[in-house]
Queue: 2 jobs
Job 1
Amino acid sequence: MATLSNVQPADTSPTPRRTRAVIQFLLNNGIILALIVEVLIFAWLGKEKFVSIDVFKIILQNASIVGIIMPVYTMAMISGQVDFSTTQVGALAGTIFALLLTIFKLPWWVAGLAAIAVSIIVGALNSWVIIRLKIPSIVATLVVGALAYGIAYLITDAYGNASLIRMIVPQLRQIWSAEIIGIPATVWIMIGMYVIVYIVLNHTKLGAHLYALGANPDASRRTGIKVSHLIAIVMMVLAMTTGIANVLFNARGMSAGPNISPALTASGAGIAVTLVGALFAGIGLFGGTGRVEFTLVGLLFFSILLVGMSVIDFPAQVRVAVDGIAIVFALLLDSLRRYYASR
Amino acid sequence: MAQQTLTDPGAPVISERIRRALEFLLNNSLLFATLILIALFAVIAREMNFLSFENLVNILMVATLNGLVACGLTITMLAGNIDFSTQGVSAIASILVGVIFQQMGLPLLPSILLVIMGAALAGFATGILIVNFKIPGLVATIAVNGSFVALAMFLSNNKQINVVRPEMTSFWLTSSLLGIPFTVWFMFGCFVLAYIMLNHTKLGAHIYATGANLNAARLNGVPVNRVIRITLILSAICIGVAGIVSTARSGITILFGSSGGLATGDAFLAVLLGGIALFGGSGKIEQIFMAIIFLAVLFNGLSLLALPTGVWFAIRGLAYLLAIILGVARGWFAKAKA
């Protein structure tokens, strides 16, 4: 580990204060710099194929579905909860939506409300297992996620085809293609979610309590914060936004099923796409720290990577490799930052 | 992690004898559950020859892959890390079998050794991230997983390789003792070795100490960094062997594009069922073995009955729920005892 051991402690040989400030600034804003470098590289490689309004729109639209979930997911991670059930909860909500819309021929808003209701119930189940059974959130959400996945499979087995329910409803596509001031509607929803979560985290009592809960659950309990209420709220809101985002995603593909959920990276859904993005943006796994606006940059980074590599037509193994290297690199950056912060 | 440590409203009061009986049942719950399940399937799936020797061997074969993965996972989890890089490491092992054994045509044993060394290197790389860069094991292993898959894709030039040389299959699958294939014996051997290592060696004691309290262990002179590195390498070796076996069985490398490889899911389920604490330090490996057999019997019975996939996944979800409820019950009894 050459890089870390070569840096000498501050008291033995004082690094010039200015140098340290520069290093700290670079580390703190590493993700923004990475984004700029990434855009420059793609612009250089792809020329006008990459630098166009259409590609810009695709990048935003691609990011928007995971981007609706991401701010709330960040909120959950800041309060110390890791959710491994986003993929499964979203799939269940989408399946319920498709079932009610196409098999039972209910109006779209009834189907939508039912899907949201189901995801809130799953979120409530998550928080019940975490709070009442006192199971750490990683395991609790894995378990509840497995159940939700099973139920989605049961539904598509009974009513669908090849674990899919198709929705041949052309109006659904309009949600996706609708634009306000030239920017897709789903992108506006994403921006709205980020603004709301930013305000909640930075300018309300609830936000302060969430940070406190993540930093030290015991201490916050003793200071009178209603810990179980907070966890229940966070998990239910997270499940709800996951459900909404997945229904929007299913509307684009006009099909829903247990295996259909948005992906953020080239290597696919993985364990939790949102987790990767949040970690990339330097949100600690154990809560209490992190800034939600950084996850937007992290999200855009991955979206640009995904779209850019497919526009320039990289081979599949290169895409997966670049993804993997980016994630590991982000972790190393985070590790360095913590090292500097502790000095 | 917000661990829930709400104070309990007083330990429950129950009579000594009932408590002991319940405790005995809980401690051996997996054994009883497996026996009940076997009896159940023997009746329901009678026409499908559930109790035939071939089917029982089949159950053990299914248990082998998950068993190997779970064996490694148990060791890493006891030391306080979780290894979620199963897909990547097994993909590397599988592709290495294709490249070294099939394409380069090395003899059987040297190529197996080389593949295992490759897997061990992968575990060593994960160890560097966890120990030197102080990245939590869960995050580090998820992160390297993608990189390992990419590496495997590069090694094979993103193509599947047919492993047609017969020695690999005959070594792992056809050669048998008492009618049971060598692979199954190998899995048994792994568990026995792991049992001896965990319970009767200094390394085992160090693993438990590291998982129970990293800082306390370090202050007491346990070489925690080395222990964590060793557990990750052992885990990668176990996963690597599982990758070799599954390649030998299917006769083709097991990575398709960026998907494929072995999954952590069922092994993780078994580890939870067997009662390994999520953040390390407690749990018994013999329970994991029982859990693996239990799951193999369950899934074999379900597939014999030809139930639809939906029911299959739903039952898996219920098994997960059962696992954590068992865990809660164990904790409850431990508290009642204290």
Note: The CA atoms of residues 155 and 289 of chain A lie 40 Å apart.
Job 2
Amino acid sequence: MTTLPADQKVDSRPHWERYKHQPHWRNNEDEFQAAKLGMWLFLSTEILLFSGMFCAYFILRMFHPEAFFEASRYYLNWKIGALNTVVLLISSFTVAMSVRNAQLNQQGWLRFNLIFSGLCGVVFLVVKLVFEYAPKLAKGEVPGGYFAYPGSPAHEPSAYDPLFLAVYWVATAIHGLHVLIGVLLLFWLAWRAYRLHFGPKHYTAVENVGLYWHIVDLIWIFLFPLLYLVP
Amino acid sequence: MSAIESHAAHGDHEHKHHVSSWQFLTGVLVTLLILTVVTVGASRIDLGGGLNLALALAIACVKAGLVCAFFMHLAHDKPFNTVILFYCLLAVGCFMLFTVIDLGSRDRVDPVRSGTVVDPPMAAQARENYIAEHGYDPVTDGHGHGDDH
């Protein structure tokens, strides 16, 4: 009678339970903490990326406070911004819940929360494209030298409207790109969750994509009042 | 067995990550949603000066703090991750502070440099282009031409 060598036995345990750290780590925990540390370093570069746009906002606003106030009130609808804020906050909550689900091996809830969070990101993008970007492009409310909005009796554009729109378009478009990447990552996580990749002993990817998604939410927490509710 | 080997042998079973209760996470979400309503409400009241901006930023910072501490688990994490975040915020603070000081005080150094950073002619140009193309001024003669704003 032949038996398989010990290291070739079929391991029927789920992926997360079998998971073995890469050989250059002492254990799974060190690998997890190092991956998270790397994620935080990456997130700090993300904050620095957006700080350039926030700085441009503060400088231009410092010089043209009235123009920014008028432009924000006229070009942007705070209700759309508030709706997207709520959508992102709820998705942040479900992502935080998905980490908890992985820690407690609640596989069904883990899948649900990851897919739900991804769908929230899709809602955010659809609202942005359909209710903001498309009408703005059609009317010529685009930034800088491409500005082609001729004005209306309700609002005669000042010379600084293209500047406000430049900050708006650049900041929200780069943020939107981050949301798009986050959505793809969340659906990738959901696909892996269906294959039982995540559980109490291994959920590094859920944790790190979660951190990324929360940063995307954080940026929006600042963009929303500054752009839509120019105080 | 040396201390390092011992740690390696038992490391996988030693760590206990903090698990947030769903009630607590829900409480954080509700607080964030309430603060969003407060942000919108605060922008409707004219406090004058820079107070509105300061208030909006203060609320945003509280929201950011809640997300970082509890959704991103910094409150239960290794403190070094928090050090990285604060070091990054320090860099952002220096960046913004010195840019504002520079551009905000140029008129004291050289009066010629006061005023605007750039003076874009795009808005006036857009209006002229529109008049040349459509034969009327949408601002003064905009009624009845289907402008949907």
Note: The mean pLDDT of chain A is 92.
